[in-house]
Amino acid sequence: MSLLEIRDLKTYYRADGGWVRATDGVSLSIDRGETVGLVGESGSGKTTLAKSIIRLFPDNAEIHGGSIDYDGTEITDLSDKELRRRIRWQEISMIPQNAMNGFDPVYTVGQQIVQVIRHHEEGVSKADARDRARDLFDELGIEPDRIDDYPHQFSGGMAQRAMIALALALGPSLVLADEPTTALDVVIQDRILETIKEKQAEIDSAMIMITHDMSVVSETCDRIAVVYGGRIVEIADARTIITNPRHPYTLGLRNAFPDISDDDQELISIPGTPPDLVDPGEGCRFAPRCPFAEEDCWEITPEPQEYEPGHFVECHRADEIDYLQSAAGEKSTWQDATTGDRDAVVDGGIVDTSGADATETEGGSADE
Amino acid sequence: MSEATGRVVDGSETYKLEVEDLEKHFPVNSGIVSRILRGESDQAVRAVDGVSLGIREGEAFGLAGESGCGKTTLGKSAIRLLEPTGGKIYFDGTEITNASGAEINRFRREAQIIHQDPYQSLNPRFTVYEWIKEPLDVHGIGTAEERDARVYETIEQAGLKPAEAYAPEYPSELSGGERQRVGIARALALEPSFLLADEPASMLDVSIRASILDLFKRLQTDLGLTAVYISHDLSLLKHMCDRIGIMYLGELVEVAPADEIINDPKHPYTQALVSSVPRIDPDEDRERIELVGEVPDPVDMPSGCRFHPRCPRIVQPEGYDFDQDDWRAVVNLRRDVLAGDVDPEAIRRNRDDDEASALAIRDAYDVPDRLADAAADDVLDAALSDVLAGDSNDAADVLRREFATPCESGPIETHQVTPTQEAACVLYDEDEPYTLE
Amino acid sequence: MSTDTDTTPQGAVTGLEKRIEQLRDGLGVFKGDRLGQIGIALVLVFVFVGVFARPITIEFLNVTIPGLAPHDPNARAVGGRLEPPSLAHPLGTTQLGRDVLSQLIAGTRVTLLVGSLAAFMAVFIGTNVGLISAYYGGWVDDVLMRITDIVYAVPFLPFAIVLVAIVGSSIVNIIGAIVLILWRSTARVIRSQVLSHKQRPYVESAEAIGASDVRIMYKHILPNVLPLAFLYAAFAVGYAVIAEASLSFLGFGDPNMLSWGEMIFTVYTADAIRQAWWWVFPPGIAITLFVMSVFFIGRTLEKVINPELRHQE
């Protein structure tokens, strides 16, 4: 029995033109102690998906359907108050992208951790909570005495570590990490990821790691879900996604991501822009950018198919894996995808930015 | 990689852009109060501190390093967008360090910059057409018709087609990738020969990043541009550049051809940096090099090699033989003793011990209870006894004298490690070889 | 999107269209904003009344547009003394038998003139001071901002009274006094805006192409801070009107120019405040209404500058 079971989840944002379907029919299950990566471009809905679990989204967002079963509790049935009291933070916590924004600047970091501990666990004395905060700091490699510092006295890496301390203070069973290292330099990123992994193993929590960085998910995750246009288009164990992907979008992402170990890699971008999620219509959402799109792709929405155990792909042509993989490695494949003048659509032509992008930003989830 | 990589540097080579001992210090206090009380504080952030570097004609050069290492300041000072506080700049062999008037104007036509943030680097009140035309107006180039034609030509050169469709748009109507292309078009309008691209793709989505990088590559080939790319992303620089320079705390620590610096870095800092980059390939096992502490404050620089307080390969003192990890631990302890920062009482309290002890101090710094080298252990033991007795000064004297490392003193020379690779590290000083296990 | 490949500089032409479109978008904030609409309507009425208050003679056409004021506001004894409102004199008469309605209408012109001129000049000076101060920084900034600080320390009324007492109370001097004080807040606010814009990469991009300081200040930065200057201009009009009224009420107004403040002053000196409510209230209400409508407009304009406010309703 898995820890978290999301079924057909739909989270929409209210916008001028109607509903933005940021998460549109996503199913995902996570086992205890497992790390699942969500990768995709900004505006793909990966952050919305994760935030839907603990309803940490702006006022104009709404869950429109589906269920989220957390350890036997149906989260979507809980009131905001119950969710806050019973689930958020003690069961499911979150490491935000920018730790500095996660802390309240007028309290010391220690005060905030103590407050979180005492808010969720009854009968813990201030002194005990403080001791636990100090221990956490020590374990995460920050001087315990620095719990009396204010957030602005911390460097970016240290603030991120303190945020991890805060997220793990109550020993949650699931941690949502939203681009936890995107704003950091590689040296610090490496150390933070290592710390997260260690602590996660220690308290045996599961994790959802949201990122656009293929190398980060490859190193830290057990399974990877590739998110596009509000749906999970491919999900499998990390190795399969990296070495043997079937969905053209996953193949495209691999092509576009520079690999430091590859001496003569040819970077290939994916033409076009993410789809307008206000009225996505029928058909595969990647079809307009896909070099392999056929007639069916435009008309019939693909359903997830299991190719190997645990490897689900939403693509009509996923069984042509050999052809897809070899053709996707050619730059010309992607250039020819767009009829005629490729440059006109290199970055998607002139787009209406009021669509999906804008909503994602309002949702507080600038992915980059 | 292009042919340029293989070219061996010889002394007579002329550079497109060359900086000599370039220095850019920012005063810490520049308000009126400090000006009245001038002399009280002449502290400065030494963002760029004596960098010498030559960029070859037509090459793609990458500048990398962590945030705050001074790579952007170096780039901007080199093209006089910031006024350097010291050193010299040569462009096409002509010194432009103090150029002004017509001379700097001529230079401004030749060297252009592409900014990181496509959402902030275009003036929201200018249309694409006006924005690209402005440099032509400023320099009074050609007739009105010629300028007009040039605008459309550059828009297309930057990959925005049809140009007529883009020309009347305001930046708010364009996507991030398109805005970045508009920025590039503006830089190209004056037909420059040198481009400085400051994190040109870091704000863009992965999927379109490649197309912008492609555009840069194509422009370099088609127009023979020389380009400097500033980025914290080593994978990207490796992909884009012929050569890469790594900066740490205002200094250039290593310069080498891109493949060599990534596959076989020489400077310990570069080694640590490269080892921290996560790898996509699940079969690749990278050896992580852990660094001590964080990047120090650029106001209060370490002496000697700036990396030595964190360097895992810090050179051992003469006459002693440490295990390298132990030596690193001893150096950390020594540094705090020298600074008078070791407080046995605080260590005792943290550990809940009954009594302060030398072992506790060793343990707090990960120094083993006994060092392999008995002579070294005696020195350390004596110093720690002094610390416990409250004689911090005596302890500091002993440690300073006995455990001196060449890394902490004097200016660090840049050594030619291989014919194409140079690193500023005493490990490569051939006159005084420091063996390392 | 047009795709024809005509070689005329259509970028410039369509740029103009775009600009008009932008302006229309900007004015779009008034749509659905009742208070803003009321503000605009009231101001338009005041402007109309102000312009056509007195007869306008166009010499070469030999036409005279009749004024809105039913009587000559300065003519004595058009009615009885301190007559309450009647059909002949809807707002009654003054102590000297002048028609209050005519005075009110005539006063509109002076008030509008003082308000708009003073506000325009104050914002003009303030914007330039703020722009130059922030752009050049260093000692220029120091000097200009210390002057601004000093002006901030000057209390308006005593300053204006002393100034007017020395140089004489003419409308020009009154406007001068208001401008000398009013520019300070605009300077401060514009300076902080410019400081933030100066840091943006588009300014560096202008430096990189070799644009001159003047060009960067006035072509690049100014258009970006102009909306804020407009907002301050709207508020400044309100303040200027109040300032003029205060000065006039205290007896330092231009004796030859009839303004609303001047009217209340006359009521006061005639010792008629208690009995002649029809004489006191109209100018008082006019001042309040006008200032209020200007602030309503300002409040709406604020949404153009700070779109976040649009969501807060």
Structural class of chain A: alpha/beta
Beta-strand fraction estimate of chain B: 15-25%
Question: What order do the helices and strands of chain B follow?
Answer: EHEEHEEHEHHHHEHEHEEHHHHHHHEE
What number of domains of chain B? 2
Give the name of the CATH architecture of the largest domain in chain B.
3-Layer(aba) Sandwich
**What topology, given as strand order, has the largest sheet of chain A?**
6-7-8-3-9-10-12-11
CATH superfamily of chain A: P-loop containing nucleotide triphosphate hydrolases
Helix content of chain A: 25-40%
What is the total tally of β strands of chain B?
Answer: 12
* Major protein interface: A-B, 57 and 57 residues
Taken as a percent bin, the fraction of beta residues of chain A is 15-25%
**Envelope shape of chain B:** elongated
Identify low-pLDDT runs of chain B.
1-10
CATH overall fold name of chain A: Rossmann fold
- Strand line-up of the largest beta sheet of chain B: 6-7-8-3-9-10-12-11
What is the CATH top level name of chain A? Alpha Beta
- Based on the coordinates given, report the CATH architecture of chain A: 3-Layer(aba) Sandwich
> CATH class of the largest domain in chain B, anyone?
Alpha Beta
- What Rg of chain B, in angstroms, do the CA atoms define? 26 Å
Any idea what the radius of gyration of chain A is? 21 Å
Low-confidence stretches of chain A: 338-368
Tell me what the structure shows.
The complex is a heterotrimer of chains A (368), B (437) and C (313). With 368 residues, chain A is of the alpha/beta class. Chain A has a single domain (1-91, 172-368), classed as P-loop containing nucleotide triphosphate hydrolases (Rossmann fold), CATH 3.40.50.300. Chain A has 14 helices and 12 strands. Mean pLDDT of chain A is 84; it is low at 338-368. By secondary structure, chain B is an alpha/beta fold. Chain B has 2 domains: 12-32 and 42-248, Rossmann fold (3-Layer(aba) Sandwich); 324-404, no CATH class. Chain B has 16 helices and 12 strands. Chain B has an 8-stranded mixed beta sheet with strand order 6-7-8-3-9-10-12-11, sandwiched between helices. The longest helix of chain B has 18 residues, at 206-223. Chain C has 313 residues and is mainly alpha-helical. Chain C has a domain at 107-191 and 225-307: MetI-like fold (Orthogonal Bundle). Helix content of chain C is 69%, strand content 2%. Chain C is built from 11 helices and 2 strands, in the order ααββααααααααα. Chain C has helices spanning 10-27, 34-51, 100-136, 138-153, 156-167, 171-198, 201-208, 213-249, 260-269, 277-305, 308-311; strands spanning 56-58, 63-65. Chain C has a two-stranded antiparallel sheet with strand order 1-2. In chain C, a hairpin with a 4-residue loop joins β1 and β2. The two termini of chain C are 35 Å apart. Mean pLDDT of chain C is 82; it is low at 1-12. Chains in contact: A-B, B-C. The interface between A and B is large, with 57 and 57 residues.
